[in-house]
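question for whoever is on the cluster today: can someone run the full assembly for these? two chains, 913 residues total. i dont have access anymore since they changed the login thing
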Amino acid sequence: MARYILRRIGWTVVLLALVSAVTFVIFYALPSADPAVLRAGRQASPELVAQIRARLGLDDPLVVQYWTYMKDVVLHFDFGFSYQSGESVRAAIVSRLPATISMTVGALVIWLATALPIGVISAIRRRSLLDRVTMTGALLAISAPVYWLALVALYLFASDIGVIPIFDGANTYVGITQDPVQWFASLLLPWLVLAAGFSAFYARLLRANLVEVMGEDYIRTARAKGLPERRVVWRHGVRAAITPIVTVLGLDIGVLLGGSILTESVFNIPGVGRYAYDAIRTADLPAIQGTVLFAAFFIVVANLVVDIAYAFLDPRVRYG
Amino acid sequence: MNDLRLRRARRPLPSRPLLLGCVATLALVLGACGGSSSDKKVAAGGFASGLPTDGQKRGGTLKLLGSEGFFHLDPGGSYFQLDYMVTYATQRPLYYFKPDDPKTAVPDLADGPPQVSADNKTVTVKIKSGIRYGTNKKTAITGKEVTAADVKYAFERGLNPSVANGYEGVYFPLVGADKAKGGPISGITTPDAHTIVFKLTKPFGATTARALVMPLTVPVPKSYVAPLDAKQPNPYDAQPERQAFTGPYMISDYKAGKTITLVRNPQWDPKTDFKPAYLDRIEWTIDADPNVAGRQIFSGTGLANADTPTAGAVKRFATRAKDRITFTPLGNRFVGVNTQRKPFSDINVRKAFAAALDRRAMLLARGGPLVGQLATHFLPPTIPGYDEAGGAKGTGADYLANPSGDPAVAAKYMKLAGFPSGKANGEKVVMLGENDSPAKETAQITRDAIASLGFDVSFRLLDQSTLYSKFCGVRTELEKIDVCGFAGWLPDFSDPYAMLTANFYGKSITAVNNSNASLFDDPAVNAAMDKAALIADAGDRAKAWGAIDRRLVDKVAAVPFLFDNVANIASKNVQGVVGQWIASWDLAYTSLK
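^ ran it for u. tokens below:
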């Protein structure tokens, strides 16, 4: 197992290097804005633009620029500074990570706490009224674009602009260390919005898997052995049915830690996703690179954790 | 200020809501254009005037909600509308436009009007005594008096690449500036602590004097800032709370992309300033969703927009809270066509295109009747020369007479261009446009107009930043394109020179960062602009630039279609005052009710 983990970590490093290289190439190969021109403003003379290009190192060959960038990342964990704000990209991302982690973890708790029981009950009581109601609701939740859902949630429930003002609305987020109660209150609605789609998807996925698993021979054998139904469902059914969900879960957590742009935008939660969005919009390459690398890091780490978790969930899986 | 294209790159928002401008014939926003003092609060149509009123309340906290961040808060780099809102509240430039008069700058840091020498090559400014620097943390500069040397250093550092001022070379042709890279400029001297003299390389004093409202003129104490200017990135910009402040407010806290907070500057002495500075504190939230922000401002208290409200928000305020929305004219929009490449190098084809273009549809695409005034020339209503160029009526050109387009006139000019049938024969025209609404829709209307002339239009849409920084702003690329996006310009200050030269002066065609979208280079127009830039008398200047504007229309340097109006919205307990010259809240005049 240790060798496997070490090998995966090695590949993670290679993968991150590849991701950074691809981002770099895409930025330059495809038409995108010139940071020096954006920095200089439209009345600036070509000489000034040239000076800015030189100062930002944009005149160096691409390979040199990439090498310089990676050297700083590897040796100093320095992702450069934003062309836009002059802020250190590392500091910007680190300062925004707590908000993104808060969003992700809270939503994760809600969507697992709702999706698992709904998925299991729907599978066990197939075609019941409860199954039909929850699966229809799930379909609606999956179909609703998160931006739209967030706006509707605010217009319905936000304390300042909602028809039924029961939740804190947009622009109310504070850090957990600043005011834990306000932190919780400000995130409740974003958590529910973010969790809605995921919860629905996971419930449907679990239901489908469990329905299939419950028809397997070994389930029949378990029942024939006289095991209680609860044990059959949870120990034999759910455990097998949940394996593919863990795979998806790992990816989703990784993606969300890279930033949930729309939810962060609507609720104005200063997370990594919004930072990435702004960076792309303003052709801020260091910020784009930084956020892409962070997102990629979270995704590959989440994958690694998932693969390791497999070994515990499925006794047939062993790593050499 | 920078042009609409780049400004809007930072504000990819729904159509900018506009209303008819300060046009006497339309008489819609008379209040905003200087109505009587008795009804200063209300403009015609029932909308808020955005003007200062008597008895505004002192104290309280204003919260601004904006979706955009700042470009540069260093006064040396500040060049965008949002940057200006903070810079002009926290710093004192030499001159200042009071919110109700966008045409006449008044001395702020300066102690009297600028003195321009008879040969128009020297500008002398006296500065006030008793203006002191405030800082968040006590430093050697805290409480120190501003001197002329600080203004001198502000100009010097503007040429330092770590500050990179975007307009110094345009409005301040200083002797010795070509050799300076942040060090001394021989053309600036300070004979005493309160006098600064600018020596120019050409007789440009009349224009330079008008440009002394720009943030570059904000004093910067060298002893304190020079060590910061040596760093990359420059902390005076990236950490603006470290600045030495001269205005009524100072930046107490700044988190890039998140929030900025302004508090009172304890060193600011109201006896030296005319600004009332009613508010105690200003809290500005960045990255707010514009749809949500519009609703919050509508329902909440103590809130106002920081940047362009959405069309939905404007509609809601305009119908349900007229007294809390203001409309302020600012800038122009036009379609530039490549005047150096066939087919648009032929003036008759350009006239045919102007005649074919459905400008009314473009207005509707940008938001309908609320969005502003159809333009028939280039100088907007708030800029001197507007009336001289024809005002709302225009110059009388037949190809701009029908805002919905006139196929018969178009055909007439196509025949004159050598197309006997009145239509082209499928010659190819290359057009690029923006892929965001409403620019996308206006691009499609433009494409249809060109196609209606019989051309085969190769049409591609790109994101705005890419479009301008890689294609329309790069001369070698632009030379291969017939129609490149849409241009528009916000004046850096209220003067026709600042409005017209960037877009239509031959020398403004540059290899990169080109702002002359039509590649328009007419020797007669260039000469007229050179001459008009030297005129000091306001009336004569307006006449001369009005005539140039007419000539630009005659030559179809581009096809004007809109004079923008900007909406600002506020909560019910906010007495919002708009700086008419930048169409944004003047934070030093805005108050709570």
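summary bc i know u wont read the tokens: Chain B touches chain A through 58 residues (CB under 8 Å). Residues 1-38 of chain B have pLDDT under 50 and may be disordered.
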